[in-house]
């Protein structure tokens, strides 16, 4: 059975120990060793010059030395294909755009009880098995970010996302996602995209967007499930 080495970075040492306990215990099925570091600068030194070749990095977001996005972006420069996960108490909407633009493998919100840690085990397992590996050669460039609620209507979008469809961001909030796609594309998404995402996976590819004036455009899209049941969608316009 393959053995994995995981680096967890959190300025709260108690949290680090909890994460290590969940990931290392036999019931997790991961067969991994977790090194815990409270200082992201020291963690970067370990990744740069340390003796361990890590298979995955898990980081908190709100840390005094540097935030988790800055830290993981620095890691990405050292190891372009290393799976990177953000495990944070920050609200999804506050960090969604940063997560996408930084090319992180996954984001999971901390919470009370054992469920967030059990879910973290599954996300780490998925990432290290290759299902969540970041591809630095990917042609998909993602500019705008939106979050779709459990009712399949947009909870929020950034200005770039809305502008791709010729709307203001407040005009898109509350719209059902189907309103931003032509009918034939809606059927494709329902048949091929949503089953992947609702099964816990991530879908990336091309689809058709519908602008406010009724015209369409080709979009590069990434859709992934958030841990609270909502969906994160990131898009950019492609030349047809």
Automatic annotation (TrEMBL):
GO biological process: phosphorelay signal transduction system
PROSITE patterns: RESPONSE_REGULATORY
List of residues that carry 4-aspartylphosphate: 60
Alphabetical list of Gene3D superfamilies matching this protein: 3.40.50.2300, PAS domain
Database matches in SUPFAM superfamilies: CheY-like, PYP-like sensor domain (PAS domain)
Residues covered by the Response regulatory domain: 5-125
One Pfam family here: Response_reg
Top-level taxon in the UniProt lineage: Archaea
UniProt entry keywords in alphabetical sequence: Phosphoprotein
Protein name as it appears in the record: Response regulator
Source species: Halapricum salinum
Lineage of the organism: Archaea, Methanobacteriati, Methanobacteriota, Stenosarchaea group, Halobacteria
């Amino acid at each position: 059975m393959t053995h994995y080495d995981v680096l967890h970075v959190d300025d709260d040492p108690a949290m680090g120990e909890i994460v290590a306990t969940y990931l290392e215990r036999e019931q997790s099925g991961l067969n991994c060793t977790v090194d815990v570091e409270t200082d992201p600068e020291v963690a970067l030194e370990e990744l740069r010059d340390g003796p361990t070749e890590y298979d995955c990095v898990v980081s908190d977001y709100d840390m005094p030395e540097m935030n988790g996005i800055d830290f993981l972006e620095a890691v990405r420069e050292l190891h372009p294909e290393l799976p990177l996960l953000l495990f944070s108490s920050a609200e999804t909407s506050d960090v969604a755009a940063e997560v996408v633009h930084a090319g992180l493998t996954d984001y999971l919100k901390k919470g009370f009880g054992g469920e967030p840690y059990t879910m973290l085990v599954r996300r780490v397992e998925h990432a290290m098995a290759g299902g969540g590996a970041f591809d630095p050669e990917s042609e998909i460039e993602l500019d705008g970010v939106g979050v779709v609620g459990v009712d399949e209507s947009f909870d929020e979008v950034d200005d770039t996302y809305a502008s791709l469809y010729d709307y203001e961001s407040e005009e898109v909030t509350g719209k059902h996602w189907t309103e931003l796609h032509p009918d034939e594309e809606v059927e494709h998404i329902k048949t091929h995209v949503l089953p992947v995402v609702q099964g816990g996976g991530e879908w990336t590819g091309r689809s058709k967007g519908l602008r406010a004036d009724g015209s369409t455009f080709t979009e590069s899209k990434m859709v992934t499930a958030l841990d609270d049941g909502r969906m994160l969608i990131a898009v950019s316009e492609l030349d047809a």
